[in-house]
Write a structure and sequence with these properties.
Helix content: 55-70%
Strand content: under 5%
Distance between the termini: 29 Å
Strand order of the largest sheet: 1-2
Shape: globular
Structural class: mainly alpha
Order of helices and strands: HHHEHHEHHHEEHHHHHHH
Length: 447
């Protein structure tokens, strides 16, 4: 046989092997990401269908409206747990510098990566004068009370409104030790994991596969739920980064789209030694928790006294009508998570555990001030506050049931910030599940 013929056969064999490998990876992923979720009676397929046809189109439409597109946040709060590494000197840089890229660094590629992260991580703070004037009027609609999250001091001069539509959550290049430090602090110190259980510095690296999770089986339901919520939030954020990845940048115009290689690195069952499907199942579990919170809080918004105020009476009425329609859809879901199974034991022990649960979550919200990339910090703080608001709702059922129709309630109130965070956080989860469906299709087509 000629050399060209041998090369041709070798190439064909390699192509067949690649096809078989991709087929096995896709089949394995689908086999592990199906069926009923642990600790609840809901299956993944029902969530996919419900989210795709009922929730996703409406929630996207809602989040484009003025009430939900502006989020008030302080991106200048110092990290309360470790010293900042300083600020880089690059113009318009709003992220923590990459300490490993000092002036003595000789690796041009690393320096370029750091500069790119600085640029992509900067927050677009553009606001119209009309919007700025409206915000002053909005302030009188804000209330305060006890919260699960460490809320920003809205009187601080560092607090600013950010237009979420101008700052989509996507890949920024923020990675490495600085990012790992944040997630490791969350997992190691706040998720009830015993220190005897080893986890590598990089939280995305596979540890011991299935054996890593043996410790979870010995935890009570409440602590298992806590870990799943944080893992689900982490998975959701990573899905957004994979789906809106910087593919190329020409003439100063970036091109964003799905990155299959990055998705497989974070979620493929083979590359992650079985952890990827667990992470994605936790995303579905988190979706269920926030979906349940939306269905439970509906009576709060049903009251005529609750007004999603922006100053435009007609638009405000349309916004509320769409929100109530979404609440009706959430209540129609037949397989909700039963939060009554949590904190249901001895009253004194349940109260103590509930407080521990709340303090752990509040601590995680404070860790978000240690995120070095401004855009990542923005979405981290928003999604953490959204989940905290969902937990507050689930643990306030009696207060919500006893709300007066025509007067404010001292027992249960939601601030504008909590409402905006709650719906945007759920919108992120809804988007994650849609993006996951898209990646499944891309993996099938890549075969």
């Amino acid at each position: 046989m000629s050399r060209a013929g041998r090369r041709s056969r070798a190439g064909a064999a390699a192509a067949v092997q690649l096809w078989v490998t991709l087929s096995c990876l896709t089949t394995a992923a689908e086999a592990q990401l199906t069926g009923v979720l642990d600790d609840c009676l809901c299956d993944i397929e029902s969530i996919d269908s419900f989210n795709t046809y009922k929730i996703f189109p409406k929630i996207q439409k809602l989040l484009e409206r003025d009430y939900f597109r502006y989020y008030k946040v302080n991106l200048m709060r110092p990290c309360p747990f470790w010293a900042e590494d300083g600020q880089c000197s690059i113009k318009d840089c709003h992220v923590e510098p990459c300490p490993e890229y000092s002036k003595a660094a000789n690796n041009t590629k690393e320096i370029e990566d750091c500069e790119q992260a600085n640029k992509l991580g900067a927050v677009n703070s553009t606001l119209s004068n009309q919007s700025k004037e409206a915000f002053i009027d909005w302030a009188r609609y804000d209330d305060s009370q006890d919260h699960f999250c460490e809320l920003d001091d809205e009187r601080s001069p560092a607090v600013q409104y950010v237009d979420l539509l101008l700052n989509p959550e996507r890949y920024t290049g923020y990675k490495g030790p600085s990012a790992w430090r944040v997630w490791n602090s969350i997992y190691e110190e706040n998720c009830f994991k015993p220190r005897s259980v080893y986890r590598p510095l990089n939280p995305l690296a596979p540890s011991w596969g299935e054996s890593f999770y043996k410790w979870l089986e010995g935890l009570c339901l409440e602590k298992r739920v806590f870990y799943k919520l944080i893992s689900g939030l982490h998975a959701s954020i990573n899905l957004h980064l994979c789906a809106k990845y910087l593919l190329e940048e020409t003439w100063g115009k970036p091109s964003w789209g799905p990155n299959i290689k990055e998705f497989k690195h974070r979620f493929d069952p083979v590359e992650t030694k079985g952890e990827g499907p667990r992470r994605l199942k936790n995303l579905y579990f988190l979706y269920l928790i926030e979906l349940r919170a939306l269905s439970k809080v509906a009576p709060y918004f049903d009251r005529s006294i609750v007004d999603l105020y922006t100053g435009n009476v007609e638009e405000d009425a349309k916004t509320k009508a769409l929100l109530l329609e979404i609440f009706q859809d959430t209540k129609s879901f037949p397989m909700h998570f039963d939060e009554k199974s949590m904190f249901a034991g001895n009253q004194k022990e349940a109260k103590s555990l509930k407080e521990e649960f709340r303090l752990h979550f509040k601590n995680i919200s404070r860790i978000m001030d240690c995120v070095g990339c401004d855009k990542c910090r923005l979405w981290g703080k928003l999604q953490t506050q959204g989940l905290g608001t969902a937990l507050k709702i689930l643990f306030s059922e009696k207060e919500i049931q006893n709300l007066p129709e025509n007067s404010p309630s001292k027992g249960f109130q939601l601030t504008r910030q909590e409402i905006v965070a709650l719906l945007n956080a759920f919108g992120r989860l809804s988007t994650s599940i849609i993006e996951l469906q898209n990646f499944k299709i891309l993996l099938k087509n890549s075969r």
